[in-house]
What does this fold into?
Amino acid sequence: MRIDDPIGAVPVHMVAGIWGTLSLGIFATGAYGAPTPMGADISAPVKGLLYGGGTAQLIAQAIGSFSVTAATLVVAFALMYAVKATGTLRISREGELEGLDIHEHGMFAYPEFATHPSEPLHSPAPAAAMAPASAPARARV
It folds into this structure.
């Protein structure tokens, strides 16, 4: 699907958030009421599907999850299209070959994972990272 999610935001925030929202419509016990500006309205407790509440709460939760997901996708795609239109979405080829940490910040992100014991922790990128993309990477021992 060509989704770039290096930090795991989709499973952590989207999937878990939707599950948490839908689970209220399934597992709500009726111990709490709907929130109001003056506190919980306990005259109409919220019950989920498994506690005799029927499907109304589950459907309301599904509509809410769908609405938030759709609005987020629309805004995210609009923002990414705007960034792409400015030409700042992608890094230069030189920056990609050098490595983003060195190119953008001037140092390794994880100095404890130095590629060779003789290299200083904050040295420029190793020669293997600077090699042209078509050249095979050299194994270091």
